[in-house]
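Database export, one record per block. Field names are fixed; values are copied verbatim from the stored entry.
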Amino acid sequence: MAWRSREGWHAAASRRIVCVDILKTVTAFTFAHSITLALAALGILSLPSRAVESVIAGSVVFAAIANLCSTRLQWRWQIVFGFGLVHGFGFASVLRDLGLPAQALSVALCSFNVGVELGQLALVGLFLPVYYVRKSRFYRHVVYQTGSAAIAVIALGWFIERAVAVDLPVW
């Protein structure tokens, strides 16, 4: 976790701060997408897939740009909760595309959700060692800034493809 202020880039002061922030963020996303995944998979609520896919791509652009130019986000977990609600609809469309029988839906819904969570935890675990290099110049410039810029560009391409239904050339 890092942020920019007028004085420059700052790394989180302690591992505890980083872990609490990650826990709040991941929990908010998990809780939110679990709600809409269940509602959509059970046919209670539905949104157009083009809109869902566009907002999902837009949420990735937002997160990457927030990494690059934001001050410390006090509302991070609330923003992630909102995006998690939309991501749940995206997960539901993947689950629906599997064509599962109605009698297996509740087991499939729980299993799918657990699988998504395990994947999320694996990614968080993969990136936790970055904590130990967070104050280095290499991390700030190469990993954090360049990585965020690359993610923003790719996600912007995805957003454009989905929002206006065009196929951009392969990068």
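Remark 1: The chain has a mean pLDDT of 83.
Remark 2: Residues 2-164 form one domain.
End of record.
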